[in-house]
Amino acid sequence: MNTETKRLLESVRDGKISVDEALLKLKAEPFDELGYANVDIHRKVRQGAPEVIYGAGKTHTQMIGIIDSLKKHGQERILITRLSPEAAKMISESCEITYYETAHLAISGGIPKPDGIGKIVVATGGTSDIPVAEEAALTAEALGNEVVRLFDVGVAGLHRLLAHKEEIMSASVIIAIAGMEGALASVIGGLSDCPVIAVPTSVGYGASFGGISALLSMLNSCASGVCVMNIDNGFGAGYFASMINHMETRKQTDFKEEK
What we know:
Helix content: 25-40%
Largest sheet: 5 strands, parallel
CATH topology of the largest domain: Rossmann fold
Number of domains: 2
Radius of gyration: 20 Å
Number of helices: 11
Shape: globular
Number of strands: 11
Strand content: 15-25%
Distance between the termini: 34 Å
CATH architecture of the largest domain: 3-Layer(aba) Sandwich
Structural class: alpha/beta
CATH class of the largest domain: Alpha Beta
Strand order of the largest sheet: 8-7-9-10-11
Order of helices and strands: HHEEHEHEHEEEHEHHEHEHEH
């Protein structure tokens, strides 16, 4: 069930807000038309997580306008991905943001206390994969997850990965990020009992074809329980991992016939 909607209904049940107040939240305008953007105000109500700003291709003025719109409509935490250092500097003159240059990502409103059911492990094949990994890790943290980072644990030195078996075996979900031949996802998939999200990166020499080689390897993984994101899509992996880590426990009730 949508977490945000459930919290709203629980607040009505517990008397924290009135029925009319809850109705007003649900009836609020679904988007704010700015001319250059239609800001989705109902994203969190529908999906449990608010709208995220994709920074590439947008001017800093446009992003400031979107940030102002989201804040005006009550969004406390705003995530901006694929944000250049130059744009981040200009935005910071008008809005309070924390910029993470390695991930090319900014967060307004800080990182919340984790409320997921477990830990998300973010593992990379090499150091060159860290920018994509940080995008995934920070996205997951901004969405309320505890993240464990395992960097440079690729198959070229398998002992490095095996030294972290405890973290791998205790994770709720693992994000495996690798370029080159992308073998890390299959190896982790064969060691763990949780969902594995594979992210191919564009790291590699000519025959890696900008990440296509790793993408095809991950799609053809022989390990069960591995799903694959698009090339360099750390944000998508972090978001999907957060969805998994916030799945509610569903108990099936057995109804017995009364005699």
